[in-house]
Write a structure and sequence with these properties.
With about 160 residues, this protein is of the alpha+beta class. It has one domain: Gcn5-related N-acetyltransferase (GNAT) (Aminopeptidase, 3-Layer(aba) Sandwich), CATH 3.40.630. About 30% of the residues lie in helices and about 35% in strands. The chain is built from five helices and seven strands, in the order αβααβββαβαββ. It has helices at about 5-10, 25-35, 40-50, 95-110, 125-130; strands at about 15, 50-60, 65-75, 75-85, 115-120, 135-145, 150-160. It has a seven-stranded mixed beta sheet, sandwiched between helices. The protein is globular, with a radius of gyration of 16 Å. The N and C termini lie far apart (about 40 Å). InterPro entries: Acyl_CoA_acyltransferase, GNAT_dom, YpeA/RimI_acetyltransf. This is GNAT family N-acetyltransferase. It is an enzyme of class 2 (transferase). GO terms for molecular function: acyltransferase activity.
Length: about 160
């Protein structure tokens, strides 16, 4: 493949499991996506827990993820704890394949139902979740604090696998 071919037809995004070795990168991505980002130590602790599954999104030949999703499995249910995509990769359709692959992995591990919470008003995330079949099951008013100090509701959603 020529250099021009690689530019015109870049390698397909890769979605691979990530562990504690990626904690610092995940913390940086998370901090860029949320008003209250989690620390590297937070990610190291989470990724070291039994039942926690994390998948990273890799573009091109890079060894650093540009996005990730992280879930916790308990018995036959899982909660998607967080999903984040780095600013430079947002809005390019990466969330859907990342989430689809992650949901496939959860199903492979015996998960029958997946839960998540999402900020009411986060239109891109809500659209992605609904396209994957998640449905609204509840609402928590004032759950998330925004960077300006205001509070907004969280919608709780679920998907039967």
């Amino acid at each position: 493949m020529s250099i021009l071919d690689r530019f015109i037809h870049p390698p397909a995004p890769r979605i691979e499991p990530v562990g504690t070795e990626a904690a610092a990168r995940l913390a940086a991505i998370h901090a860029s996506a949320f008003a209250r980002g989690w620390s590297t130590l937070d990610f190291e602790r989470l990724l070291g827990e039994r039942g926690v599954v994390a998948d990273g999104l890799f573009l091109g030949r890079t060894a650093k993820p540009v996005g990730f999703t992280l879930s916790r499995i308990v018995l036959d249910e899982a909660e998607i704890i967080t999903v984040a995509i780095a600013a430079e990769a947002r809005g390019k359709g990466h969330a859907r394949p990342l989430l689809s692959r992650h949901l496939d992995e959860l199903a492979r591990r015996g998960v029958a139902r997946v839960h998540l919470e999402v900020e009411d008003g986060n239109a891109p995330a809500l659209a992605a979740y609904r396209r994957l079949g998640f449905r609204d099951i509840g609402r928590r008013d004032g759950y998330y604090q925004k960077a300006d100090g205001t509070r907004v509701a969280a919608l709780t959603m679920a998907l039967d696998l």
